[in-house]
Amino acid sequence: MKNKIRIHLADDHQVLIDGLTNLLQTVTNFEVVGSSQDGINIYDDVIANNANILVLDISMPKKDGIEVLKEFSQKKFPCNIIILSSYDDLKIIKEVMKLGAKGYLTKKCAGENIIKAIETVHLGQEYFCDTVREKIFNSFTHNNPKLNRNHYIENPILSAREIEIVTLISLEYSGKEISEQLFISTHTVETHRKNIMKKLQTKNTIGLVKYALKNNLINP
């Protein structure tokens, strides 16, 4: 039997903890192993219950989520951390990702994203809900005149993340720049690039640029 993903929930509202627990318990390979309503003992509790994933709110009494993240980064990360917050301020998003969080969800989108987020982060990948990802992407490209901001593409071949990567590559951003600004590793960027080229059956960046132009992702 596959080992269950062990989850610790940290939020100052018990009703939210209870709701998330009920939802996560519907997933066969999930197990909620603990919870916290303040930030004081989260690190020790995560160690004690051997959690794989910590779902962490930013607004916590006694020690807020950012301070908790700092504690984890100063010691070690015994688990991966997903931020679940009412805040969608870009400054906060960037701060917590730089501190080592692997995912960020707003509470408005938690119900439809939390299960996927946990599964994705547990596999070693980053996860952002659509509104957060869009904020990060737009902050990176807001001064680029070639970006077509009036076009949204529903693509049967590429995922939303792959569309972002194609667009950024076509705008001549380097793998390192994409990695730093989208809070994903350079390895993840390169993996996306290879997968995109395979899906589009192209062998080089020129093919990606042609695709972006043809699908109105960028302006000539």
Automatic annotation (TrEMBL):
Keywords: DNA-binding, Phosphoprotein, Transcription, Transcription regulation. InterPro entries: CheY-like_superfamily (IPR011006), NreC/VraR/RcsB-like_REC (IPR058245), Sig_transdc_resp-reg_C-effctor (IPR016032), Sig_transdc_resp-reg_receiver (IPR001789), Tscrpt_reg_LuxR_C (IPR000792), WalR-like (IPR039420). Residues 151-216 form the HTH luxR-type domain. GO terms for biological process: phosphorelay signal transduction system; regulation of DNA-templated transcription. SMART domains: HTH_LUXR, REC. The modification 4-aspartylphosphate is found at D57. SUPFAM superfamilies: C-terminal effector domain of the bipartite response regulators, CheY-like. It holds the Pfam family GerE. CDD domains: LuxR_C_like (cd06170), REC_NarL-like (cd17535). It comes from the Bacteria. Residues 6-122 form the Response regulatory domain. GO terms for molecular function: DNA binding. PANTHER family: NITRATE_NITRITE RESPONSE REGULATOR PROTEIN NARP, TWO-COMPONENT RESPONSE REGULATOR. This is DNA-binding response regulator.
